[in-house]
UniProtKB/TrEMBL annotation:
UniProt KW keywords: Nucleus
Any one of the GO CC terms: nucleus
Entry-linked Pfam families: DNMT1-RFD
Residues covered by region (Disordered): 1-90
Basic and acidic residues: bias regions: 22-38, 62-90
Name of this chain's protein: RFTS domain-containing protein
Subcellular localization(s) per the UniProt record: Nucleus
InterPro entries tied to this protein: Cytosine_MeTrfase1_RFD
Length: 347
């Protein structure tokens, strides 16, 4: 398997910078040596570290330092110290406010840059599209043939949605997998709603609906051997299984599908071989044929989506019963977690 190098830092990328770094290091070293002779090495370390990083300490950091100082110092010394610290804080505040005015503006909902050429507006609403509560009463979607006595009213009804687009309340098209739902940002979708048994992804026969939502959750199913991974949206009223996106929304879905299908491949391998090594995993990805329209999987794809893959394996584990093996502890998962620096969530 081709081991990719893209994730390793390559100092040779910018030779000028590399030379400068070496110079700087030499300088610090010689400084350090002379300071050590003078017995001041500790103090110097602190100074050179903060310079090297180039990161400005936050205001919170300053307060923290100030607090410690106060506790340590006697009452006599604290007054002049306080004055200089306040000045530092003032300049820090001025610095950040200046920076903020220079930054391009972001949407308060979807966080996309408002002047970005990638920012797309949803504009494909069919004229006869109806609101969610009107759509839900459409007889074309009724699966009960009027016999409501047999319906389990406690369960949310499931439908399919095709030719869909997802957008925020400013109609900016946006991804549904980017944490917006989790942050309680309201995002909606439009498209053609079909009965759950429908297999036809065209708009024909569907009920055109707009501003369905807000989406309160999204999920994936079909990781354990089903041919397709299904993505679903949940609103306060219903669940919608995704069929095909609209043409303008397709790029957002491809991005999600890539990480979903690589997770599916990983989980399927683990179900077959819970002792799979990282090399086994690479071999499996190499021979996996991704769904139409997606590039082939490699180590880069895996590392790029490592956090999502690990989250999915954990969530798969959490649904396991006591006889099932726990997959997250497989050798290849341990390797992936340490390679990609993934955090194990509480999901
Ligand atoms: Zn927006």
């Amino acid at each position: 398997m081709a081991k990719s190098k893209t994730n390793e830092p390559s100092p040779s990328d910018n030779s000028e910078e590399a030379v400068a770094n070496v110079k700087e290091e030499k300088e610090t070293k010689s400084k350090k040596q002379s300071e050590e002779i003078n017995g001041k090495s500790n103090q110097n370390d602190v100074i050179s570290n903060s310079k090297k990083k180039g990161a400005q300490p936050t205001i919170a950091d300053m307060f923290e330092k100030m607090d410690k100082k106060r506790k340590l110092e006697s009452g006599n010394d604290s007054k002049p110290q306080k004055k200089t610290k306040t000045e530092e804080i003032k300049s820090a505040i001025n610095g950040t406010s200046l920076q903020a005015t220079n930054l391009p503006k972001r949407c308060t909902e979807c966080r996309q840059y408002l002047d970005s050429p990638d920012l797309k507006l949803f504009q494909d609403n069919p004229i006869d599209a109806v609101e969610e509560f009107v759509m839900l009463t459409d007889p074309r979607l009724s699966v009960f043939d009027g016999d409501y006595d047999t319906a389990d009213v406690t369960e949310r009804l499931q439908y399919k949605i095709t030719q869909f687009s997802v957008y925020d309340r400013f109609t900016h098209l946006c991804g549904f997998d980017q944490g917006l739902i989790e942050k309680d940002i309201e995002i909606y979708f439009s498209g053609y709603v079909k009965p759950i048994y429908s297999e036809d992804p065209s708009s024909e026969g569907g009920v055109p609906a707009r501003n369905i939502g807000p989406i309160v959750e999204w999920w994936v199913s079909g990781f354990d051997g089903g041919e397709k991974a299904l993505i679903g949206f949940g609103t306060a009223f219903s669940e919608y299984i995704l069929m095909n996106p609209s043409e303008e929304y397709a790029p957002f879905v491809s991005a999600v599908q890539e990480k979903i299908y690589i997770s599916k491949a990983v989980i399927e391998l683990l179900c077959e071989n819970e002792q799979a090594t990282y090399e086994d995993l690479m071999n499996a990805l190499d021979t996996t044929v991704p769904p139409q329209g997606l590039p082939t999987f490699n180590e880069d794809t895996l590392l790029r989506h490592a956090q999502f893959v690990v989250d999915q394996v954990q969530s798969f584990d959490s649904a396991a019963d006591e006889n099932d093996l726990i997959l997250i502890t497989a050798p290849c998962m341990r390797a992936l977690i340490s390679l990609a620096g993934v955090t194990l969530g509480e999901k």
